[in-house]
């Protein structure tokens, strides 16, 4: 990453840091050896990719973006083979550097399609399909969402009707709203997909199940009979991905193309029920867990760009006549960015805990134990929503904090936003996800009322209501965790009481649910925030020395900022009083000042190569003006001094205006 001339302001920032950023990098990448390996892989990927001199993706048409993304995947594939990479983390670092924030068309194949095959197929099906999928003879996607329904899966209309005579399923899209719409890679890339369709056998509808459907010829890539497939057109972002539509006109597939690990249809059409019919939703749960890490990483990139730029950018004076300051010295700028640096770390840590929890429960499921599945669903849904909301809002805040240059694609921030914001919608729309978490919280509250024991993550709901916070200016970390848990427990209890009172007044449960759903979402958000704060606190207390004190400060900043943002929720029952609220305000100002000297080192620790950030403003060497100028000079419009459009449209337009007043004397030079 070394560069001949580093901007002096950035250099000073790095020198004044009170801790060794490398130590934090080692934490993020699991030790010095893995960090070296990550750097090696990413450097190699960057060198290889630079040879292709790709144009910035934002300057390309949809078709060109798609083409570039395929080329990037091709380069990645070559490197992966050459290096014989197998390790999932190593692969992800390599791919991140070859295709930074590029939604590649094989994304769904490598994530949801492969995972569904692996977790929902029988052993025999796995033996048949996995070798084809791993060797990209089969390129798949996950086709669940339809034009008419994405959220309400029970409303899906695509049917798979069993025909016992031929031992086949007939897969059909009966209406315009039943057309599969949005699946990634479906438009032009995939040759098969997992179609989620309502299973009908012996005249009975058993709801959504997964089926493997071939949609294109494996050799010519032409759509098969009965298949109408294509790309859905240009979108807000994600244009390198051919999100597609799919219409199935009574397409016949063999009986054993239904993924039969959990439920089966026997040859005679008998349906065999799964142990839990929500196991069909398993792939969504995995991806929701992964999204927490993806959101954290996108936000980490955005804060790296905005903090480095704010250290380089000098604008206005603080002390009159004393010269222009780094914009990062304005308290308001610190308030915009430093809590977001804290959020990036908080989410990174929460995502690791989430991933570990997912793995543990997945292993239990493999062994047939489903006890922790509801807890996993509630946690992954809530964290998916919280992390993607915080990341999306955070990326946009970073863009705004970069002033005019943030608006240019040269900043890299619009690309981060375009790729990051669909996280709010896909894999379960966030409000809907929070309501799923709320459903579980209300259930836990009910169980508690009946004297039952709660699972580990919900134990805090057992704390008695009322009481007051012990928070004082020392900002003890355990007091902060307790405050978040108290607020969440109080909100869950309040909204549960409202639901019960509505029931006692004869209101139907579904109506009571809807008329309290704003509060339910708030309670689920509070619960998810409590989890993030607890994870952050538990992890930083394992650090030592200077790193520990820097991270504790960052953790306090995250927690205090969060309390002040939702102060009413913490004060409503008097748990935090007005004196404490005042104290927290002053503490916030102190925390900003405390984090300020380490701001650049904290973002450096994320260790993103420049090519991954892909930003003129976030460069490691801080040479932002040269980079911005180079970007401008390379604009397509600058390829010719006088464009054809001058002769075609501008000149005729000007001449039409001149005709209105022919008496104006025009000098040869102005
Ligand atoms: C990225 C690259 C570039 C870099 C980007 C930078 C960032 C990168 C980020 C990268 C990250 C890596 C990603 C790789 C790429 C992936 C791309 C992904 C693309 C997106 C794919 C999709 O977008 S793909 C479609 C997803 N489409 C949904 O997501 C539908 C939501 N809609 C539902 O999910 C259901 O419709 C909904 C609401 C639950 C109601 O379902 P329902 O009506 O059946 O259920 P009810 O509400 O009646 O609940 C009945 C009982 O089921 C329980 N339950 C419900 N769900 C359960 C579950 N999952 N597990 C266990 N239990 C569950 C519930 O808790 C109740 O339990 P109980 O009865 O005991 O209370
Ligand atoms: C970039 C991108 C990639 C995608 N990739 C895939 C893919 O690979 N495969 C696939 O199958 N799908 C994919 N999708 C589709 C995605 O999963 C759905 O868009 C998503 O599940 C939301 O469903 P919806 O679009 O029907 O939204 P709707 O459910 O129509 O949501 C619209 C509004 O209604 C509200 N709402 C809906 N239901 C409720 C409720 N019960 N309570 C309260 N509010 C509610 C929502 O909160 C939202 O505000 C992708 C989408 C995008 C944007």
From TrEMBL:
Associated pathway: Lipid metabolism; peroxisomal fatty acid beta-oxidation
Q: Which GO terms describe its molecular function?
A: oxidoreductase activity
Question: Which species does the entry assign this protein to?
Answer: Batillaria attramentaria
Q: Which residues form a coiled coil?
A: none
Domain Acyl-CoA oxidase C-terminal: start-end pairs: 476-655
Active-site residues per Swiss-Prot or TrEMBL entry? 427 (proton acceptor)
What biological-process terms (Gene Ontology) are attached?
fatty acid metabolic process
Localisation: Peroxisome
Q: Which UniProt keywords apply?
A: FAD, Fatty acid metabolism, Flavoprotein, Lipid metabolism, Oxidoreductase, Peroxisome
Its cofactor is: FAD
List residues of the Acyl-coenzyme A oxidase N-terminal domain: 21-139
Q: Principal localization?
A: other
The UniProt record gives the binding positions of FAD as: 145, 184
For this protein, the record's Pfam families field holds:
ACOX, ACOX_C_alpha1, Acyl-CoA_ox_N
Q: What is this protein called?
A: Acyl-coenzyme A oxidase
Q: Name one GO cellular component term.
A: peroxisome
The entry's family comment says: Belongs to the acyl-CoA oxidase family.
The record places domain Acyl-CoA oxidase C-alpha1 at 281-442
